[in-house]
Specification:
- The structure is a homodimer of 315-residue chains.
- With 315 residues, chain A is α/β, with parallel strands linked by helices.
- Chain A has two domains: 7-268, TIM Barrel; 274-314, no CATH class.
- The first copy, chain A, is built from twelve helices and eight strands.
- In chain A, α10 (274-281) packs antiparallel against α11.
- At the A-B interface, α7, α8, α9, α10 and α12 of A face α7, α8, α9, α10 and α12 of B.
């Protein structure tokens, strides 16, 4: 029997936008919206809210900013809810319209654990504008336990936060760690929705999401064909084929993979690649792997591995 | 702390040989042998033993037959043990030299569960020739429980069998099922070595191997860069980076991936592909997916999906 509380949030355009500076055409984003709607997905994360003082619209595509006028060209008010991510320090809630004037339903605030207080302040302001709010504590594999415990307690006590996400930014965790974190988040944040967002550096993004489900996590991030930064994410097609809720339909996702994502993957090369595997296995940020994948030296795997080990010697 | 009982068996040449009719050059197999030896891997499965009456050496490369003269050209007697697989009904133990005259250490007999009696007879004859023996019951996701229970009891009572493998041929299983099977195999076959061989249709090959480890499975199959039939296997590089035994060294594997496996994967296209995902999620043999991947229609994913669903309607 399926668990009706489970919701799938597809963040292809948001996390996948990190592959191409968010330069997806309106036509393409509209087709992703339609595919997700027809597949029965619950949420579509359509990009980031970012300050145009900090990021130039000449350099970044529209989904780095998520202006309501752009969203209105691709989405509609229906059972597929629109989510937008905001990084702490990179956008101003003053630029966000009230919920009643926007197609956006949900804001997810991404922060490192040191910035949870800032994330709480942002969610308070966004809740006051009428939005559903989540806090995504990034890079949880680098968090110290007492800081995490304190952050989770603060979030549990903040009435304006609707939910919290376990985020394995570096793609380092495996099942036993996911079990531990899921139990900690769920038992501490008893009144909150709890979600999971994984990366596929060690080919564990889907399995870690399953382990979250087993432990009671109900909000599941996926991206179509795994498109996302570096090694990419848990794939939406695997999630939908695993979940038993009859409302899900795999076919619209298969169709858009066929028409668009096979070619995009060949171009942007997200997914399991040895440099991402190396940073994941060493619990490191993928930035060095992303850089080397863009270089002619990308196949010098042992050289890359030695360089990452050498960084550790410097500590 | 690592578990010293854990052994890694790399079956790149054997399972990967299903991608190219076992046509690897002697030079390449020699370099794989050296890489595995230098990486500290415990076993190298070098191919199949097959009857030349049934399979033509014109059509298949040398690693379909594993003549001792071929093995002697690529391997040596050292800490890396040589394993050969034999399918029930496809080879004769009369063609196998005594252990004292061969570099082969181990025979693994592959069979469907209906043929366990035949596999037992073969292992008895191979044990009499001096070899370590395993039985790999294939396609376990299609086995009926009473048949599996009987087979495991028979194997436990057969003194000439050294070990048994859990084999997820269709890449269908996930963690909870791996836990169940691992506990069953280990508790029934108390005196035997227990191993696991996984396929990556649902991106769960590595995670399922980890779940086997957690439950006490000690013999772990991997292939370099996941090379194997269809979606391929648990990758040897992920296994070595996960296991804590200091004897393992990732670098020789990274080097040979760089020099050989990146290009081979582009040619043979094993790994996560939507047709393999579809057969895996439906618990079906991958043969229809392998056929469609070789055709011009390989991207007609929904058509392929509908055809697999329609097969079920016919039952």
């Amino acid at each position: 029997m399926f668990r009706p509380e489970i919701k799938v949030l597809d963040c292809t355009i948001r996390d996948g936008g990190l592959c191409n500076n968010h330069k997806f055409s309106h036509d393409f984003v509209r087709r992703v919206f339609q595919a997700l709607k027809n597949a029965g997905v619950d949420y579509m994360e359509i990009g980031y809210k970012s300050s145009k003082d900090q990021f130039s619209p000449d350099k970044f595509g529209p989904w780095k900013f998520c202006d309501d006028k752009d969203i209105e060209q691709v989405a509609e008010d229906c059972s597929l809810k629109i989510s937008v991510m905001g990084d702490v320090g990179r956008f101003s809630p003053a630029d966000v319209k009230p919920r009643s004037e926007s197609l956006v339903n949900t804001y997810r605030i991404a922060c490192y654990i040191k910035d949870v207080d800032k994330a709480l302040k942002l969610t308070e302001e966004l809740k006051a504008k009428g939005y559903e709010t989540f806090i995504n504590i990034m890079a949880i594999s680098h968090a110290l336990e007492p800081e995490l415990d304190e952050a989770l307690s603060q979030i549990e006590n903040a009435k304006y936060v609707d939910g919290i996400y376990i985020v394995d930014s570096f793609g380092y965790l495996y099942s036993e760690q996911i079990h531990y974190l899921s139990e900690k988040y769920i038992s501490t944040c008893k009144s909150k929705k709890v979600g999971i967002h994984t990366h596929n550096n060690l080919q564990l993004a889907f399995s870690n999401t399953i382990e979250g489900i087993i432990k009671g996590v109900n909000y599941l991030d996926g991206t179509i064909y795994g498109m996302g930064r570096g090694a990419g994410n848990c794939t939406t097609e695997l999630l939908l084929s695993f979940l038993k809720n009859p409302k899900f339909n795999l076919r619209p996702i298969l169709d858009i993979i066929s028409s668009d994502f096979i070619d995009m993957m060949a171009k942007y090369r997200w997914g399991y690649q040895i440099p991402y595997m190396i940073t994941g296995s060493l619990n490191k940020h993928p930035r060095s792997a992303i850089a080397v994948m863009d270089s002619k030296n990308w196949k010098n795997f042992t050289e890359f591995y030695e360089a990452r080990i050498a960084e550790e010697d410097l500590v």
